[in-house]
Design a protein that fits this description.
By secondary structure, this protein is an alpha/beta fold. It has 26 helices and 20 strands. It is 37% helix and 13% strand. Helix 2 packs antiparallel against helix 9.
């Protein structure tokens, strides 16, 4: 048997720092691990003082750290003998899961099982080290964090010109790195975060528990390491587990569309990327040599990343795949239909709604919809009537309004429809159109055919489909006549439609019986973060607040979440702030501590807020505290920018950051919501809670939620944690 090799990003970065000849020697020696990774007491040894099995391979004056199970060797790091053992004693790490027994002549399965048995039972998935943040201070207003002593962790390797050249750091960046001698200084350097991560990996002590929990990349052949030896920067594909591999090939030649569901970080996007190769193979078997394939993402920030992954997975065939956001495709169709878009701003429809209600004979506070607020009325019109393409009043009277808690009688629906007609006229008079209306018009143009309709695609892959309007899903379905080539990924927990969304109501061909799969494990977000987010989402916001606060933290979900989310990390911090003005200081302390603790630059930090106006205010305050930040909208996010990203909770869908802070929840308590009907309030709070859940699960390693002192249905279930000194995390 031959073991598969996988590598961490740290191993890749450390290889770059070594002489090319040494990399080639290491590459040749790795064949030893492919044949037999078991220790022999000489070339391969197990490290002492480890409760998990960490091994080293001797290659001249260098040592390769690795870990293995019954089929896979994970290469963790490589360094000179004098440096590789620093900082790795007395750590408890999580092992790779056992897969299948070995069946090989070179390594007998019984021998391996005996070797494993000698080390005792597998360690607990919990880290033995205390990862809960530091000492609390309570002045009567809830626990807060006090600034602690500044961390000045020295680099274990100096940053030299030779090192920067080996790591392919552009010379224009060298002056920014002069004189840097501590991790704190490196964190603050104004350089690209990918370069910063590379320097973290080669100039600081190895963190074995993080390395074992880090994503691993496929090392498909020795040529990959040869390219590294030649100084090439290569993009490697994440390694899939057995479940993910099975879903890549799920029903490729079936008679209908395929859907894969999974939670945050479960690998849905990676599966979609890998499936493209299977689809191309199948299409070519059917005689289509140059297929036309569409891959849609939810946000522009992911378009570039997806293209890079496709290039690695497909090589030259990546040119067959068009990668766009669904909205950009629909806007292209809309323009091709002879339309000049004049999109509404955030306040245009709210400003016109009272006028439309009056024109329809149903002014606010009067008639059958007297108790329905303008905000709810706008949402009903755009997300039900427009997004679901309701053609007339008769159809509206007969539909089931899935996901809507406020029941509407016939007279009320008639009034809502009259307001919609009046609003449509008002918008037309101003030559403006909303995004849902533009999407509806685009799908109408596609159905009508003609010059506005793009050529059909041989296959379409849709990532995070639950975040799309029904009109967008219909358009994509129409552009893929071979329904068996339509592949969707979805996350029900993030859906704005909740658990009642009916796919067949969107399109009759969206039937997934026998052609769907579920991903239950995530390697992106930590157990501690998902446990908090899941409990929050399960909390009944209508329950009395004192009952919620008194609930036990052991709600029975921990065991299930622990299996699905094997990564471990620090407990999330829920900090109560007495007033909004306290937020910038709390955020600055958290960011400074966690960028050092998690070894990420400012670009690896996101602050999620309810509104862009609050985000801009926060940016100005953080800059006064020497925290470089930028307030950016969804389509403006540059993931490579070396600054803290401040964006809205809504815009964070589809993104991920090592460190996330959520602030401004006091903004999510608008006075107007208190005047709505109980049903409206419940529906609105549940929608906002789902969005907050999405924001929490954008965090990969570390999470802070700043909670206003005054309780509300939005923050129900978020009980302030015992906040200790953040710098000790």
């Amino acid at each position: 048997m031959v073991f598969e090799l996988s590598i961490t990003q740290a191993f890749i970065d450390q290889l770059y720092s070594l002489p090319a000849g040494q990399v080639r020697l290491i590459n040749r020696k790795l064949d030893v691990l492919r044949d037999n990774p078991l220790p022999d007491g000489k070339q391969r040894k197990q490290l002492k003082h480890q409760r998990d099995r960490i091994y080293r391979l001797r290659v001249g004056n260098y040592r390769v750290l690795y870990h293995f199970n019954s089929t896979l060797v994970r290469l963790l790091g490589v360094d000179a003998r004098s440096d590789v053992y620093e900082g790795i004693d007395d750590l408890v790490v999580e092992p790779l899961p056992r897969i299948d027994p070995l069946e090989a002549a070179e390594v007998d399965a019984a021998d391996l099982d005996a070797e494993i048995a000698e080390t005792g039972a597998a360690p607990s998935p919990w880290l033995a080290t205390d990862t809960t943040p530091g000492v609390s201070k309570d002045d009567g207003g809830g626990p807060t964090t006090e600034p602690g002593p500044a961390l000045m962790t020295p680099l274990t390797h100096p940053i030299t010109a030779d090192l920067l050249a080996a790591l392919k750091v552009p010379e224009a960046e060298w002056t920014k790195l002069e004189g840097i001698a501590t991790l704190d200084d490196l964190m603050l350097a104004e350089i690209d975060d990918r370069l910063r991560d590379r320097l973290f990996h080669v100039t600081s002590e190895p963190d074995i528990d993080q390395l074992l929990q880090a994503p691993v990349f496929e090392l498909s052949s020795s040529q990959d390491l040869e390219k590294l030896a030649d100084g090439d920067i290569i993009e490697l594909l994440l390694r899939l587990d057995e479940t993910q591999e099975r879903l890549v090939a799920l029903a490729v030649n079936a008679g209908g569309p395929v859907m894969v569901k999974g939670g945050p970080g479960s690998g849905k996007t990676t599966i979609a990327v890998r499936r493209v190769a299977k689809i191309i193979e199948s299409l070519r078997a059917d005689g289509i040599e140059q297929p036309r394939i569409l891959f849609t993402t939810y946000t522009n920030a992911l378009v570039s990343t997806t293209r890079q992954l496709l290039a690695r997975a497909l090589g030259d065939d990546a040119g067959l795949v068009e990668v766009v956001t669904t909205d950009s495709l629909m806007m292209r169709v809309y323009r091709a239909g002879g339309n000049t878009p004049n999109m509404t701003g955030g306040q245009d429809v709210p400003r016109l709604m009272p006028k439309a209600r009056k024109a329809a004979g149903h002014p606010p506070g009067e008639g059958p919809i007297a108790k329905i607020s303008d905000a709810y009325l706008e949402n009903e019109i755009m997300s039900v009537i427009v997004a679901r393409e309701i053609p007339d009043l008769a159809a509206y009277q007969g539909i089931e309004r899935s996901g809507r808690r406020v029941a509407l009688r016939r007279a009320q629906r008639e009034a809502v429809w009259a307001v919609w007609e009046a609003l449509d006229k008002e918008l037309a008079a101003q030559k403006k159109i909303t995004w849902p209306m533009m999407r509806r018009r685009a799908v109408e143009l596609v159905r009508a055919g003609g010059g506005a309709r793009p050529a059909d695609y041989d296959a379409i892959l849709v990532d995070e489909v639950q975040d799309l309007d029904p009109t967008a899903i219909r358009l994509l379905t129409e552009l893929c006549p071979a329904r068996s080539r339509l592949f969707l990924t979805a996350d029900a927990n993030q859906s704005i439609y909740g658990g009642t969304f009916n796919w067949r109501a969107v399109h009759a061909d969206l039937r997934f019986q026998g052609r769907s799969g579920n991903l239950t494990r995530s390697h992106r977000t930590t157990y501690e973060i998902v446990r908090l987010a899941s409990r929050y989402l399960a909390t009944d916001p209508d329950a009395p607040l004192d009952e919620i606060a008194a609930r036990t933290v052991d709600d029975g979900t921990a065991e299930r979440i622990a299996d699905q989310f094997p990564r471990r990390g620090p407990e999330p911090v829920i900090e109560t702030i007495a007033k909004a003005e306290d937020a910038p200081d709390a955020l600055a302390r958290f960011i400074r501590a966690q960028t050092v603790a998690q070894k990420v630059g400012p670009g690896g930090v996101a602050i999620l807020v309810p509104t862009m106006s609050y985000g801009e205010t926060l940016r100005r305050e953080l800059e006064k505290l020497d925290i470089r930040a930028e307030a950016v909208r969804k389509d403006e996010i540059d993931l490579s920018s070396p600054t803290v990203k401040i964006t809205t909770l809504q815009s964070s869908k589809g993104l991920e950051f090592p460190v996330v802070a959520i602030a401004g929840l006091h903004v999510e308590i608008p006075p107007g919501i208190q005047g709505r009907s109980p049903e409206e309030q419940t529906e609105e709070w549940q929608r906002r809670r789902r969005i907050l859940y999405v924001g929490m699960t954008r965090a990969m390693r570390s999470l802070l939620v700043l909670v206003p002192a005054e309780p509300s249905p939005l923050t129900a279930g978020l009980v302030a944690t015992e906040v200790r000194e953040l710098a000790t995390v």
